[in-house]
Amino acid sequence: AKNELACSTSAACVSDSKSINNHVSLSLFLLSCSRRANLRLCLERLKSLVPLGKDANRHTTLSLLMKAREHIKRLEESDRRAQHTMDQLQRERRHLRRRLEQLGVERTRMDSTGSTQSDKSDSDQ
Question: What does DSSP assign to residue 16?
Fold first, then answer.
């Protein structure tokens, strides 16, 4: 009600410098309220994303931000390890494909020449 009164007062008396100052103050106050509400909303969202452990309701903004930073570092490390594993698997895959191609070429050569050393050793057994 006080804010509404200040707003209506400043709108009615625009020429009065005190009213203009009140209007500016009200605008700043409303912007500040909006920023604080947005910050609260962001902190609540952050709480839902960061594993806080027990006593989750008792965390300060600072402790929440510190836990979020630790969580981000753990996620980055996990991503780094996963990327390293992916790189290793891709190298292994390329190696195995080359090896498979080599074996296919060798088999083709063996099929075209007839019996091979491995065929002879199989018949000896």
Answer: S
Q: Looking at the whole model, is its pTM more than 0.85?
A: no
User: Residue 14, Cα to own-chain centre: how many angstroms?
Assistant: 49
Q: Is 43 exposed, middle or buried (0-12, 13-18, 19+ CB in 10 A)?
A: middle
Structure tokens of 118? Answer: 């491995």
Terminal C-alpha separation, the chain:
102
Q: Is the pLDDT of residue 119 over 70?
A: no
- The DSSP letter of residue 56 is G
DSSP 5-24: HHHHHHHHTTTSHHHHHHHH
